[in-house]
């Protein structure tokens, strides 16, 4: 009976989206290369503060005509490493009540896996709890070398070593 | 007991998330791209389309046959050349124009992707592209009547490109082709030629692919006793940044569909082989909204 209650209550704390948005941009003096992805899937448990993301590399759409092919074939090897994932949690989960409507500044810590390489990252995020919906935003910088992304010498001036990443997720309560 | 159970429940929930997210990713819509590195397999058009606002500047040469006698440096002293621009009006509609020295041909094509191989909720196993090209032969004919017959200078080619990227390495393309020539040289020749192209690529490294292409020309017949042969090409794509270099051996001298399907006079299997290359440089004219 207790277990049943536990399972039931946890389901109400779970939020989900499959249309989350990730944007990233590589800026150099020569060229800015940026991409959007509106097919990010994610779970967020507002009671435990646990978060999980998954996205397919091939679903990033670039504004520059020829960038997508290079991104997938040369840099990300997306046939070999089709997805990127993040598994983490909000540090301050004990101090704040994410069930109360309002805006919370938090830190998210967890493991980010890109190209099969897992790195622990800790990034600031802003969480807005609304009635029956949650928005989570974060902006951070990733070093592409951390994920063993190699840039050929001839194009090194066109690809930034640090890529700015912007995450914006609109969650709704998860219904099975 | 309760603690164990509730731990188990929370563990189960996380495992669930992994599986559920993977399930969600399977529904992600992805259009397969880069089945080939270039808009041409080697000689013929490929299923690969330029993205919207992509501009492809193309320069190509086919040299003389290796086995032509005399001192002509493996055929490299003589070349049939081609330059053109291809453009992505949308991701599905491409157009191109070109000038080829072979018969001083002006050439234009349009290409429309009816279906694009994609995964996700709606799976499409193949890419289907319709192409239509027009060729205007501008060379001077010594016969004045022939020279002034404007309509006779046009050829039209229609192709259905049926392709699939089987894996990141292997792509294949089947190309039913029809060439209509307003005027043919001799009475015996057919105005309409039918051919079936077969092309494929094997990606060796990220930036180097091996391509092979063959056109079976079904109803071509000899002209003045000289046979025509099926176009064959074997070559490598080498990608350096936004350049693609296609280096090949082939029996084809012309670089427009109507001419290489209809007028290939070299026999690849008898050693009438030429060196050839296509150089493609793709530019982005502006940015797309996405």
Characterize the main sheet of chain B: 12 strands, antiparallel, barrel
Low-confidence stretches of chain A: 1-10
Mean pLDDT of chain B: 91
Radius of gyration of chain A: 18 Å
The end-to-end distance of chain A, rounded to whole angstroms, is 21 Å
Number of domains of chain B: 1
CATH class group of chain B? Mainly Beta
The side-by-side strand order for the widest beta sheet of chain B comes to 2-3-4-5-7-8-9-10-11-12-13-14
Question: Quick one: which chains have the greatest interface?
Answer: A-B, 43 and 40 residues
**Tally of structural domains of chain A:** 1
Descriptive account of the structure:
The complex is a heterodimer of chains A (176) and B (290). Chain A is 11% helix and 54% strand. Chain A has helices at 2-12, 67-75; strands spanning 14-27, 32-45, 50-56, 61-62, 83-90, 102-114, 117-130, 133-143, 162-173. Chain A has an 8-stranded antiparallel barrel. The model of chain A is unreliable at 1-10 (pLDDT under 50). Chain B is mainly β and 290 residues long. Chain B has 3 helices and 14 strands. Chain B is globular and about 80 Å long. Residues 1-11 of chain B have low confidence and may be disordered. At the A-B interface, helix 1, strand 2, strand 3, strand 4 and helix 2 of A face helix 1 of B.
